[in-house]
Amino acid sequence: MRFLSLILLALCVVVDGQTTSSPGGTVLRLRVRVKVGSATRGLARKRFYLVRGSLAQNKTMVEEVERRALISRECFYRSAGASDALLKWLAEGDCETVYCREVSADDVSGVTAVPEFVAAVAAGEKQFGSAELARKWVTINLPDSLRNGFYQVRQNSLGASLKQAEETSGAKVLSVMTDRNGTAYFTDLQPGVYTLSSILPSEIGNMNVSWNCELQVKADERGFEKPYLLSNRNDKNVKCVGVEKPLPVCESANK
Amino acid sequence: MNAQFPVRRARLFAASLAMLLLLLATVAGGQRRRVRKPVAPTSARIDYSQFLHSTPKHQAACSTCHLAPTENWRKARTFPDVADYPGHAACVGCHRPQFFRSAKPVICSVCHAKVSPRDDARFSFGKPGTLRQFVIEFPHDKHQDVIARVLRQLETRPARFVRTSFTAADDHTKHYNNCEICHAPRTNAAIAPTGGWPDSFTPEAAFFKTAPHDHSSCFNCHWKSQQPTSANCAGCHKPAEKSYLPADTPARISMKFRHAREQHLAECTTCHINITKSSSLRGLAPDVPITSCSECHNKDGLRLDVSKELEAIDKNKDFVCSYCHTSDVGRRDPPGSHYLIAGREAIKRKDVK
Questions:
Q1: pLDDT tens digit string along B91-109?
Q2: Is a pLDDT exceeding 60 seen at residue A16?
Q3: Residues 17-56 of A with CB under 8 A from B
Q4: Rounded to the nearest 5°, which phi and psi values hold at B41?
Q5: Which pLDDT does position B150 carry in this prediction?
Q6: pLDDT in tens, B164-191
Q7: Cβ count near A26 (within 10 Å)
Q8: Which of A92, A140, B145, B236 has the fewest CB atoms within 10 Å distance of its CB?
Q9: Mutate to test the interface with B, among A140, A157, A181 (most CBs of B within 10 A)
Q10: Is B277–A224 a contact, with Cβ atoms under 8 angstroms apart?
């Protein structure tokens, strides 16, 4: 009898688990458009974060994010001793790291050669006996600071903010990255109030732009795609306007 | 009458005691059965033709046995790689008895194609057809963070006619590192599932992208300096909970989707919307929402491929959706998302009269 009761109890638990499963949440479609000069474009390859709770609840994190003065890409690489040619190479592709795009044959020889790449290729050729392989594997012979130093600086700053956000909200912070058109999706969102944040500012033109906005996902939006437009300019459809600050001046430039 | 009570009591006591002893004996017996120790395996029972990384004595640092690169890398690869099995020294320290057991020691067959002192040919490294003992840890999100940043230069590019596609025409195309570093267009046909392709619909190679199966797209950045490096195998290779045979049959819901179709050249993350937040390969699921398709395939004045098939179900509950799906999927109830983009209430086939 007792055994039978246990079986019945187990069956009830299984059935209950099946009936209470979530029917799927809301999809938040971010579209990030930025205006630089007279041109407007989608902001590509930018990560956005969704933190549980209102702006007021996440006030400490947001204030910290807005107060923080992050070193700019140019300042970082200049301080790490990057050549003008490397700075130009990074800027041409709006690259934050050397992993951003392929180092071409033009980048390692001739008038457009980047000295750091030339040295790394020479070291690679010595190791592997192939100039072609050395060019393709160029990053392995670059100094740490030029290879991933800028990324690490930003990651350290990001990590601190994410930790703070997760401690405050008690929930995992979600993140997505925009595609080349500036679109990204948060999926399976449960109803509630959220803080949408870029956490790290984006360098757009000669400005740093950061976004921190509050949004609500309603229960009746379950199963729907909710469009959400962000920009650095206030406009009628823009739901979240970024705060712009001039890029910090490089220390070396002051000297 | 009174004199009978002590006798009865004694009999009752004896019977109870006997039952109690019987019960105790049964319980003790049961416990003994449960705690019975397994018989220690003898060397005769170990299958020396199988090398298991899970064996406790095989769990030293990877570099104890594996070299990176192996001496044969120039012959076997176009880049420095772990392209061969460890040498005899890695095994013989512990397995000397198995090495010299007979004329054809079975332990040799772990690496050698023929067990013979006159033939040292080995299987290609990553012995084909064997169960895999490791899974790969690959954080898509971190890699997305460092690879391409593509900004379209709208303000400087002159207007001109281009072939219709999602890609921007650019005479000065730079090769931005993107998903295709690892997921190139597939060139060989996918292997059919056991029992064949549903509806005998054989998808072409061009329907799919590849997934990395060697170190070529890892070591170009992670050979040294950038962790996990080639010397840190465990940075990427994690012991699998259970050995498995890697599947070469793509699991797809929309089997008829062709990646290589000229109109399907959007950036990968435009459709695979969850990939940029994925920190592991575990739990990756089909993540292309129907809204990625409906922009072209279910728009008034353009095409109404989804709506038309939903209407066909209204007329015939046994209708099989076949524009995107093979019948194994196409005969199911369409998900609510399909009805949503068609602007309709979801229905079940069983409710169609």
A1: 999 999 998 888 889 999 9
A2: no
A3: 24, 27, 37-42, 44-45, 47
A4: -65, 140
A5: 44
A6: 333 333 444 555 667 888 888 899 988 8
A7: 20
A8: A92
A9: A140
A10: no
Are A142 and A98 in contact, with CB atoms under 8 Å apart? yes
Rounded Cα distance, B181 and B186, in Å: 13
Q: Is the distance from CB of A226 to CB of A216 less than 8 angstroms? A: no
The three-state secondary structure class of A102 is coil
Asked if A39 and B269 come within 8 Å (Cβ–Cβ), the reply is: no
The dihedral over CA atoms of B266, B270, B272, B276, expressed in degrees to the nearest 10, equals 120
Residue scoring higher pLDDT (B246 or B85): B85
pLDDT at position B20, please?
62
Q: Is the pLDDT of residue B215 over 90?
A: yes
List residues in chain B touching A: CB distance below 8 A: 78-80, 141, 144-152, 154-155, 174-177, 219-226, 266-267, 269-270, 273-274, 276-277, 287, 289, 291, 336-337, 340
Q: In b/e form, how buried is each residue of A87-109, taking b as 16+ CB within 10 angstroms?
A: eebbeebbbbbbbbbebeeebbe
Between A and B, how many residue pairs show a Cβ–Cβ distance under 8 A? 124
With vertex at residue A159, the alpha carbon angle to CA A153 and CA A160, rounded to the nearest 5 degrees, is 100
Q: At what angle do helices A115-128 and A84-92 cross, to 10 degrees?
A: 90
Q: Looking at CA atoms only, how far is residue A236 from chain B in angstroms?
A: 23
Q: Which domains does chain A possess?
A: 25-69+151-254 (2.60.40), 74-146 (no CATH)
**DSSP codes joined into one string, B22-52:** HHHHHHHHHHHHHTPPPPPPPGGGS-TTS--
User: Would you give the DSSP letter of residue A148?
Assistant: I
**CB–CB of B155 and A144 under 8 A?**
no
- B181/B215 Cα distance (integer angstroms): 12
- CA atoms within a 13 Å half-sphere pointing along the CA-CB vector of A57: 18
